Amino acid sequence: MSDEADPRISALPLPTRDEVPEGVRRLWDKSREVLGFVPNVFVAQAYNGEQFQAWWAYFNLLVNKEGHLTNAERELLAVVVSGLNRCTYCAVSHGAALRVATGDPVTADLVAVNWRQAGLPEREAALAAYAEKLTLTPAEVTPEDLDALRAVGLDDHQILEAVQVVGMFNMTNRVSTAIAMLPNAEYHSLGREPGA
C-alpha cells in the first residue's frame, strides 16, 4: 500500500511508491503539491501502473485541459453521469470540482441526485438530458438526439466533446464502483463556501 493511503479506499491492494512507474510517482508528488493530497483514484488505479497512466493521459486531456466545452460544463456532465451510475467516488470528487468551477456550493449536490431539480439553464439542461439518455439507454440514442444540443447553441466540436466526456465517465464510474473506491475526505468540503 502507498505510504499514506488508507487501505479501505479500494477493494484491491494499494501499490507502494516503489511499485509504481516513475510517472505515477511524479503525479502523486504534483498532486500533493497542488492539492495538498493525493486523490485516491491515483493510488487505487495505479495498482496496474501502465494502464493507469494510459487512462490518466486521456482523462486529463479530456477533462482538465482547455477544450471545446467549459470546465464547468464538463464537470456538470461528470456529476450527472456519476450520480445516475451511483458512483460514490466520482459523484463526490467531481461534485467538488463543479462547486469550485462555478462558485456555487449547492447546485452540484442537486445535480448528483436529480439534475431536473437543479434549475439548470437551458444549455446545461440539454447537456444533462443527453448525458442521462446516453448513460441509461444507450441503445435508444439516435443522431436526432443531437438536435437538442444544437438547438441550445452547441457546435459539433462541443457535441463530440460532450459525448466523449459522458463515455469517459461511464467507463470510469464502472471501474471505481467495481473496486469500491472511496473519495478523499477533502472533497466533501471543497467549494462549500459561496463564491469559493
TrEMBL record:
* SUPFAM superfamilies in the record: AhpD-like
Short name of any one Pfam family annotated for the protein:
CMD
A GO MF term: peroxiredoxin activity
InterPro entries associated with the record:
AhpD-like (IPR029032), AhpD_core (IPR004675), CMD-like (IPR003779), Uncharacterised_peroxidase-rel (IPR010195)
This protein's UniProt keywords: Oxidoreductase, Peroxidase
Q: Where are the transmembrane segments?
A: none
Domain Carboxymuconolactone decarboxylase-like span(s) in chain numbering:
51-129
List the protein's name: Putative peroxidase-related enzyme
What is the species of this protein? Ornithinimicrobium humiphilum
